Amino acid sequence: MTATTGFARDDQSEEELRREAEVAGGLAGAVRGLVDAVIRTEADEAELDDVRRQVDALAERLRARQLPGPYGVRIGDGGRIRNWGNAVVGVRNAVAPPLVIERVEGRVRSEFALGAAYEGPPGLVHGGVCALVLDQILGEAATAGGHPGMTGTLTLRYRRPTALGELCAEAEIDRVEGVKAIVRGRLMTPDREPTVEAEGIFILPRWARGQLAAT
Amino acid sequence: MTATTGFARDDQSEEELRREAEVAGGLAGAVRGLVDAVIRTEADEAELDDVRRQVDALAERLRARQLPGPYGVRIGDGGRIRNWGNAVVGVRNAVAPPLVIERVEGRVRSEFALGAAYEGPPGLVHGGVCALVLDQILGEAATAGGHPGMTGTLTLRYRRPTALGELCAEAEIDRVEGVKAIVRGRLMTPDREPTVEAEGIFILPRWARGQLAAT
Q1: What is the tens place of the pLDDT at every residue in A58-71?
Q2: Is residue B213 within 8 angstroms of chain A, CB to CB?
Q3: Which of A61, B62, B172, B175 could cysteine-pair with A37, CB 3.0–4.6 Å?
Q4: Nearest residue, CB atoms, A128 vs list B38, B84, B87
Q5: Which value does ipTM take for this structure?
């Protein structure tokens, strides 16, 4: 796979984007269902082998025309960011739940559900998945507050176990020190009891500053 | 989905386990390929819609007989742990790369590759995916050193960008303080240049202590 470090220019119209999100996103959603089914199925060996052959054949069809490397991040008019391959929010990526993150008064928040594919201890969300989700949420809070950046440090405090199922998360910039945005956030049960608290420092590297300015 | 907090007893023979890992693990591997293909495909809408219908049908077949909830963690003879649904190491879980973690002289290590499904910034591993992988590696180092536990705190320092592709990671217990194991680890390029450093505190909660003792 060719690594394509760098932001690409996104020239698609809103209507084209809407269609692609619906069709490719719909397929990714179906694959999320398949991921869950493979973990939990008790079908017999012959059935699993046959499904495997068909999955291979479907992947082969999709690969007949494909990008040479990862999806990357495309930037359109007005700073619109299309990160559909992203491991947390990517609508084309079945590894991503995917989170839909909304901005509300200088804060970002998301409500989502994590199923069997995100398990660590029995019945619980993997501690690393809590970190994965919070890293994205904190990063988006930095961006929403006008300080986009990459993670410099991330500190997580696990207050109590996080059960699989419905969850929510939120984050906001605590303060800005030069090129660093210090962001706080938390993962919570639906009734807003925090299970994991996070603090992160986000910094925009020089190479990205130049590229973002050029798009 | 029913959350099934608690460890289950694993009575399968080594031979049965080997077969299931091969067949179900092979299917999960095929689904990993499909996840990557969905992110990167440039196939047209009609093709994506048709593949979607077939993916839905395959998931439906697998769901004809399935576990009522997540896979859980099963514990067999000699403390053998089967966590095949795990989000990092689960052989049945297409969200997991999956990592194979080996124990070498009081340290754990793993070599693995992360492709398009783990992207954050363009061409780079998502910062949260680095955290996800390191949480698992550090937890296994705690277990390997005789101090299994759940993550209490996790601190990550991002030293440089982590490119998608071949990577390795390692961790070891730094010290033990009462019920806490303090563990250090790092994510590295194939030539062992650290990209992300981690320190974690792992604690075995009381409910898990009782359950592990009872298996």
Answers
A1: 999 999 999 999 99
A2: no
A3: B62
A4: B87
A5: 0.94
